[in-house]
């Protein structure tokens, strides 16, 4: 007896539906689950004996103590000498640092040199303390302004410049440490002038 493919298909679908809808067997509790746990583990628990706490008498005055040095340890003077030596080596290393990760304001990005020169002139006239940096990658001009060590300084100038050039953006860049310190000094003198009546 040979069945037609459509009949065979209907038969297989019916069988699979019947097996899929059959009830699942749910495991029942084991026979040990109904018994309470009665194993005594007290023999394995750690035991702590209470000890007496010594209290210092309240009537005694505290005497000034001198630092106690352990046998074989160095005195405080030699520690200071080591610290001074370490600080001197760090100062010598820092003298060689010329650049740091900071921020600049990208004032102009476009293909027109005249617009870029106008933006540069605006910065020179209104913000003489800021340096300008021109990058040209054919055919795009990019004008970046300032050497800011902190984002706070960069945002202070950015909000002033954004009114005139709304397309400007704040970017992270490698900046000159010397010029960044000049901007920080300008900020300090500006706050001192506003504090005085």
TrEMBL record:
One GO molecular-function annotation for this sequence? peptidoglycan binding
Q: Which residues form the signal peptide?
A: 1-20
Asked whether the keyword Signal is assigned, the reply is: yes
Q: Pinpoint the SPOR domain residues.
A: 102-170
User: Residue ranges of region Disordered?
Assistant: 52-76
* Keywords for the protein's UniProt record, in alphabetical order: Signal
Compositionally biased intervals (Polar residues): 66-76
Per UniProt, the ranges with Basic and acidic residues bias are 52-63
Xref: InterPro entries: SPOR-like_dom, SPOR-like_sf
Q: Does the keyword Transmembrane apply?
A: no
Protein name listed in UniProt? SPOR domain-containing protein
Organism classification: Bacteria, Pseudomonadati, Bacteroidota, Cytophagia, Cytophagales
């Amino acid at each position: 007896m040979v069945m037609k493919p459509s009949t065979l298909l209907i038969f297989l679908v019916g069988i699979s539906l019947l097996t899929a809808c059959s009830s699942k067997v749910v495991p029942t509790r084991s026979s040990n689950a109904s018994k309470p746990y009665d194993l005594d583990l007290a023999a394995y628990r750690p035991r702590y004996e209470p000890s007496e706490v010594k209290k210092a008498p309240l009537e005694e005055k505290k005497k000034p103590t001198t630092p106690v040095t352990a046998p074989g340890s160095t005195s405080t003077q030699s520690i200071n000498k080591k610290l001074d030596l370490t600080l001197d080596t760090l100062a010598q290393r820092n003298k060689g640092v010329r650049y740091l990760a900071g921020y600049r304001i990208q004032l102009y990005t476009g293909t027109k040199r005249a617009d870029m020169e106008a933006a540069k002139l605006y910065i020179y006239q209104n913000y003489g303390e800021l340096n300008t940096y021109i990058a040209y990658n054919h055919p795009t001009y990019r004008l970046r302004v300032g050497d800011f060590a902190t984002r706070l300084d960069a945002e202070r100038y950015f909000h002033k410049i954004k009114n005139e050039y709304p397309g400007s953006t704040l970017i992270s860049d490698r900046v000159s440490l010397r010029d960044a310190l000049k901007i920080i000094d300008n900020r300090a003198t500006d706050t001192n002038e506003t504090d005085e009546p």
